[in-house]
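#help-structures
NK: newbie question, is this the right format to request a structure? protein is Class I adenylate-forming enzyme family protein
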Amino acid sequence: MFLQRIGNKGIRLGTLFERAAARHPASLVILDHDLDIAPELGRRATLTEVADLVDDFAARLWAAKVRPGERVVVHKSDNFDISLLACSIVRVGAVPVLLSPKLDGVTVAELLRRVDQPFLVTDQAKLENDLPAEVFGLSERVLLTSGSYSGALELKSLAGAARVPAITMPPDYPTLITHTSGTTGTPKLAVHTGHTFQSRYRPQGTIVAMAVKKSEPIALHVSFVHSRMFTAMPISVLQGHPLIVLRDDDPKSVGEIFTQVPPGFIEAHPNTFLRWEVLADDPGKPLANVKYFSSTFDAIHPRTVHTLLGASERKQPLFAQAYGQSEVGPIAARTYTKNRGADADGRCVGRPFPGMTGVRVVSRDGKTPTKQSPGYIEVSSNGRIVTYLGEHERWEKQADEGWWRMGDLGYRTKWGCLHLLDREVDEIPGIESTLEIEDKLFARVPELIEVIIVQDSKGTPVPVVCTRDDVPLDQIAWKSAVADLPKMAPPVQWRLDDLPQTATTKIKRLELARLVEEQKNGPQRKASSAAAEPADEKKSA
């Protein structure tokens, strides 16, 4: 789209912190954890200090023989240094391939094989506990960020390596490779260029620049390997906002940080915001200063939007929900206010960014897509990835010239608003939208912190529910809540931590459906219907 192309020189992640420090040298990065690669830096560092750290590790990588154009897989224990190492890798002209710490060793080995003999940056804990021995044969060299392991090179041994000038690759060259959520199988490796990243940066960067004062701290709880981190992070540091980076989403620790450094803008995963609903009643009022809440990863539930907006004491706070995907970035957006919350057309995910992104809904039956007969959602953006590494034919199946098939079902209203009803693979016959039903259940059963409707082998919808503090589900309240909804099986109660999740805390619905079926039929798994046993006795999934 033309506004994404004008003056697009690429995102330039390798010099991101250097350029930010030149503009705002004393601006702070505030962490809730120590960096594995530099624990001595502490939890409050200036942009100048962070820029020096990125430069330091770029020099160490160069000393380890990492060169322009080579691929460097980063798979280590969860830490913000994953994102910083990505910047260091780009700084020497190489291409970081970021793999979530949550991926199992077998999947990591398969992705290493697909990347074809990359450098591997990991740590002692991953090698000892998660990764198979074959990763050494699948890697050009294994580099350690912490600890020691036979056959691996410790990056700390390269401290003091001579600094090297930043290498800026052409903007149409791959600059970062991330992986998809893996909700439908083995993750795909999405290839981003400097151009595509700058294109997806622009819609939200433009909005934040107009809406949020530079003095307002921005808080991020975003997966360190997700493409969104590499657009949200530049927005914050280049515009001079103090940046709060959270690894832990525990409400108690988050509440303490937000009380000490009240953010004006928060971006997090939908399930994180759901967990933070309890902060609305915190006597320290950690959310009182928030002007904007933002979520771009998955559907947000109306109850969560209403609760968080109610906790803000700012004049006219907003909750912004963006609709997008790792492969294309943000495509459409809408905002909610205290007066018009998400309970008003909660399935509406907004409109495209004028001049930047486009949306169309393709009919499945030859008729105009409607709620009763939704169509395939397709989008256009210059932020679209250029391929899936090693699987270009899969990329081609979703690409139709300038359009991209999202894998979602929905329709557009006469006013142009896009309504998202379900993922194609999650559609259940006889139910117009599982997401809409889940929204209603959240609003009607306050103790719910998660509800996912999956389909069993007979096609029956099965609600999987999680409650706050794992209290047994109130059966009377549940029966009242579902009285006017499509017929479903009795609810099955699980612990939230037992649900299969992606790196961005989305629930893997297909895997959950398989586990629920296995639990129902397999003698090795004890049934855990919410009506049958207390929550603290549920078996792990």
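mod (FA): yep, format's fine, and the tokens are attached above. The first helix runs from residue 2 to 5.
NK: thank you!
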